[in-house]
Each structure stands twice: as C-alpha cells, then as structure tokens.
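Support reply, case 0932

Customer input (verbatim):
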Amino acid sequence: MLFVFAIVSFSASSWAQNAISKKTNFIIFFTDDQGYNDVGCFGSPDIKTPNLDNMAKGGMKFTNFYAQPLCGPSRAALLTGSYPIRIAEPKNTKGFHTKLHPKEVTIAEVLKTEGYQTACIGKWHAGEETEQMPLEQGFDYYYGTPKYNGNSKLIEESPYRSPILRNNDTLMVIKTVEEMGLLTNKYTKEATDFIKKNKKNPFFLYLAHNMPHVPIGASEKFRGKSEGGFYGDVIEELDWSMGEVLKTLKDEGLEENTLVIFVSDNGPWIEEKIGDHAGSAYPLKGSKAQTWDGGVRVPCIMQWKGQIEEGVTNTELLTTMDFFSTFSEISGAKLSQELTIDGKSFSDVLLKNKKSKHDFFYYYAYTHLQAVRDKEWKLVVPRSKNPGYMKWRGRKINAVKEVQLFNMKNDKEEQYNLAEQNPEKVKELMLLIEEGRKELGDHNRIGEGARFFDDGPKTQRIDEYNKWKNNQKEN
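Our regenerated output:
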C-alpha cells in the first residue's frame, strides 16, 4: 500500500544534491542463517568466498553490524526500519514471526515515491496473506518463496512445501533437495535480469536468498566442491551469486551509482539435529534465535564504487533497521514526522567517516527484551531456562540467573561478567532497559510506542489484549 508522506525531509546533504547526478540504486543481498564466521574475510578457514572478499577490499567491512535473532522479525525490521515489537500486525496479535500489517510503511513504498522501480526476489516471510505480500508492500515485481521450507535437515523430512511465485502466480512447488538446489541460481538470474532491465531507472533490489536456511541445497556445479562440506557448497554458490550481481553492475556501467549491501538475517542455526548443514558464529557466543551476539551480530559488507573508501574495516554500531533511514536520506525521500523509525541513517558513516548515530541497541527475542548494549558495554538481564512463552520449538536455552555485563570491545565472546566491578554502568544500562520496556514493550507489556492499526494496540498475548479491549469498553 502506498502512502503520501508529509513534506518533512532529512537534511539535504550537498553530496546528495551535487556529487551524485543520478539517483542512487540500492541492492540488499540478504542471506538466511549465515553465520558471522561464514565468509572468508570474516575468518572462515575452509569456505572460499572470493567475490565477497574482493567486495570487502573494494568497499567496507562492518564488524559490529546487528540484525534480529530470527528470520521473520529480521525481515520486518529491515523493511520498516523499526524494532519488530513496535510494528503493527494484523489483528494486533503477536506471532512467532512478525507479519506486517498492510498499513505498515516499507522502504520499498518510500522509494517508490521517488520514482524507483522495486523488486523483491527470494524469500519473503513477512506475512502470507495477499495484502501482506510484496506487491502490496511497495514492490513492483516479486519472484520467490512466501516463507521457508521448514526446519528439518532434509526437505523430505519437512512438512512444509513452499511454492515459487512470480508476482502472485505459482510456478512450482519445491519437493526435493535437487529443487532446493536450484533456488540460488534462479534468484541470481532474476536479479541480474532486473538490473539490466532497469539500468536507465533508479531501482531498489531486495535479493533475499533462502540459503543457507535448512533444508539447504546447491546446484550441481557447486555440490561436493567446498572444503566446508555441503554447507560450504551452499555458501560458495551464494558467493558466486554476489559475483554475478557485481559483474552485471560493472558491465552495465552502474557500479558508481549503486550502493550494494551484503548482510545475513541472523546468526547460524547450530542445533545438533542440523549437524554439518549449519554454519559458524565463531568467535561469538550463541546462535540463531538467541540474543548472545552469535545470534544477532552478522557479517556485513558494503560497496559503492567512487563514493566510499575502499578496504576499510568499520567497527561502528549499525543495524539492518538503518537501511530505511539511510536509503530515504540518500534518495531524498520525504518522511512524515509521525512515522517513528528506530533505525538511524549511516550515510555519514559511509561518506564522511563519521560515528554511528546509535547510542544503544536493544536485543529482543520475539517480544522478550533480553539485553541492551551501548558502544562499549552489553547488559544481559535475567531470564528462565527454556521459557515456554518464547516458543523455542525444543531449542535448549540456558537460564540467566543474574545480571551480566560484558565489555564488547575487549570481550566480544561474552565470557567475563563484569557487573560487580561496574555497578554504575549496570545502573545506567538498566535505565535503558526500563525505557525500552516503556516505549517498545516486553513480554506481557504493551509499549507506549507500539503501533496499531485495527482496534487496539499490539500485545504479546491475546488474553492481555482482551483485557485491554474490555477496559476500553468500560471507559
């Protein structure tokens, strides 16, 4: 759904008006469950990623880049620039995966107001109803799967059978590992075709690969080739895909006019049942669905030839929520003052070597606020073991019995609890936790800033919602 935005814009930068004569294209290359360590330039010992490594040499590598801990919430945050707990959902009920309310504003809708052609290619997973699908959320073209193909190591063991859609038409249903192995190649061709078709128009390409989420698959060309096993085959094919996108931009003369971002949606899935079909977050602690940094700190590389420094490793605190504000600023899009965005533009980080505008970042697992960090310290609040309301689907989650404080500059592995030695820092960060609970919400608590579009605010449990609704009737 398109929106008319109030004429309130970001400050227009001179570089945006003068240095770039044409509107900048944007490409997000979004992988699924790829770990922090699953890229050569991030330390992988056996997975070869020459295209991503060269992209880092010709652009910027980000080592403090954060997403959300799970697929659906991560996509919702990227598309709306907001913490998932803030986002409105149909019927204002909170599910396991965030489903975008049709009235939510996406970055695709914003860019369309500036004349951009928009495409979503790959896994959507932000709601499967017609009004929640890409064509109703600002995208001109869609090719991909509505969500995932289950959580099993092998597709034959999964109860899910996902279709491949072109716009709203079903092309095929994925049933075998061989068919799963076709996805990366199919998406790559769709992506490069879109770039070629729109080389004379400003465009936004959201290329959201299904891989390496289980059940994984690689094409015959890559299968059995990686020293990293089958999982390595999958990552190396994704690296090939990135190379094809970059080559197409170069061939079409679009390198200097396109900001390309590679990033993963969350940490790797490293459960025992997945075995060697999963990645690595080394040296970080934790994995997918957890708020230890291994679940949310993700590999990120950006390239914008002729605009940003090359071969730079950046340690600023940035997030996938920032894409919304950054693309809006660079494109000159106008946003309503009434639209609350949690992301911050990082255009000055890219172009002027400035500091991040983030003073802190909240770690949510679904609707549960579990931690907060500032530029140096991370505070983890207590929680129970394997909490049922978290819907962990059998994942083993250890309890946190006391407040934990980690120095993220010196201890990114989160090994040394320094809470006792730093009571003032604990107090400072606990105040941020309380502010987050008040503004955004927490389990069984509705945030004052949570958005809603139906007949009440979003809540985490239907009984709490009904209680609120009854109170409204009485008052």
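We compared this against your earlier run and they match. Two observations from our side: The first strand starts at residue 25 and ends at 31. The chain has twelve helices and 18 strands. Please reopen the case if you see a mismatch on your end.
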